[in-house]
């Protein structure tokens, strides 16, 4: 079964030039987390998590999350039941809410292994998250890390408009998920339980 893609923007939403918005315009099947303008500008963890859980439930399995910045952290705060339909995630430039006062409601960040395959794309000079923090996230969440050299926050402002390299990461992830979730010999592979490190 072909996976469904849910785009999860970060603080202040993703504008029209952001790669998430461009992907949504290009691929009509992609869905997106929607919030009220005030909720994007003044992020509250409870609001974001509830909206994200509802959207995942609405789409149903199998869902692949494509999260940017604070959106990556919102995913980590989802309860295990809300993550049940999720089969994979691409985390891009995750934020460190401890470094930004407007994001403080999302701290501390859960450091638990995720029950699905995931990739984390980060930058060595991201102003929202130091490289060592990105490494810690990847290790804790069980994500494969790709650390790019000096590319900023991987958004429109850092020159990542269409971001074709990101699409390649997403397609590689989806192919891996399709392979892992397709039953072989009538038996599907077991999923790793979500447990604290």
UniProtKB/TrEMBL annotation:
Q: What is its EC number?
A: 3.-.-.-
Q: Record's Gene3D superfamilies? A: alpha/beta hydrolase (3.40.50.1820)
Keyword Chaperone among UniProt keywords: no
Keyword Plastid attributed: no
Gene Ontology MF terms in the entry: hydrolase activity
Give the protein name, as stated in the record.
RBBP9/YdeN family alpha/beta hydrolase
Q: Which organism is it from?
A: Derxia gummosa DSM 723
What is the top EC class of this enzyme, as a single word? hydrolase
Sorted alphabetically, the keyword list is: Hydrolase
